[in-house]
């Protein structure tokens, strides 16, 4: 005979039928054997009917997506600057303020690129917020951004 299980929506716990649980919650529901089998090893949650179901992560919020896209843009800018020996895009762009520096031209190029990149990124995010376009994936946004400067 197959084992029978009960599930507690309040505890998100399984209880084997036939064992004595002195402190078992009083919201136990009978669970079909197939359901118990399918859910083994998975994160679960209680459905509206109290029955267990596989937990699904909520969709990211608009703010979480915005933060993630901006972090990807930051990483792209910093990676390009680091490839030239700078610790970040800010350090690279800072050289634009030093006209007599041998790195002045690079600083201007990096500062201009950073400015153009953020301007485009924020324009895209404004279009999304206004409902004028769907939220781009990270790859889609990266493809739209201006290329890094070449030296």
Can you describe this structure in just a few lines?
The protein is of the alpha+beta class.
Please provide a written account of the structure.
- With 151 residues, this protein is α+β, with helices and mostly antiparallel strands.
- The chain folds into two domains: 5-54, no CATH class; 62-144, no CATH class.
- The protein is built from five helices and five strands, in the order βββαββαααα.
- It has a three-stranded antiparallel β-sheet. Strands 4-5 form a two-stranded antiparallel ribbon.
- β4 (44-46) and β5 (52-54) form a beta hairpin.
- The longest helix has 26 residues, at 104-129.
- The N and C termini lie far apart (74 Å).
- The model has no long low-confidence stretch (mean pLDDT 96).
The share of residues in extended strands comes to 5-15%
| Unreliable segments of 5+ consecutive residues | none
Q: How many separate domains?
A: 2
Can you count the beta strands? 5
Helix content: 40-55%
Rg measurement, Å: 27 Å
Largest sheet: 3 strands, antiparallel
The coarse overall form would be: elongated
Q: Helical segment tally?
A: 5
Which strand order does the major sheet show?
Answer: 2-1-3
Mean pLDDT score: 96
Spell the H/E element sequence.
Answer: EEEHEEHHHH
Briefly note the structural class of the backbone: alpha+beta
Gap between N and C termini: 74 Å
Write the layout of secondary structure elements.
Elements: E1 5-8, E2 13-16, E3 29-31, H1 33-39, E4 44-46, E5 52-54, H2 62-83, H3 89-94, H4 104-129, H5 138-144
């Amino acid at each position: 005979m197959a084992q029978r299980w009960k599930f507690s929506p309040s505890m998100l716990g399984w209880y084997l039928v036939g064992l004595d649980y002195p402190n078992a919650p009083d919201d136990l529901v009978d669970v079909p054997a197939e359901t118990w089998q399918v859910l083994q090893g998975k994160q679960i949650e209680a459905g509206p009917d109290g029955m267990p179901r596989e937990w699904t992560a909520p969709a990211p919020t608009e703010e979480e997506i915005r933060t993630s896209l901006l972090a990807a843009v930051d990483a792209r800018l910093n990676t390009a600057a680091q490839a030239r020996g700078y610790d970040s895009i800010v350090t690279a762009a800072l050289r634009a303020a030093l006209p007599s520096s041998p790195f002045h031209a690079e600083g201007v190029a990096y500062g201009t690129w950073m400015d153009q990149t953020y301007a485009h990124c924020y324009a895209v995010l404004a279009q999304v917020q206004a409902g004028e376009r769907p939220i781009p994936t990270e790859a889609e946004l990266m493809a739209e951004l201006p290329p890094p400067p070449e030296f």
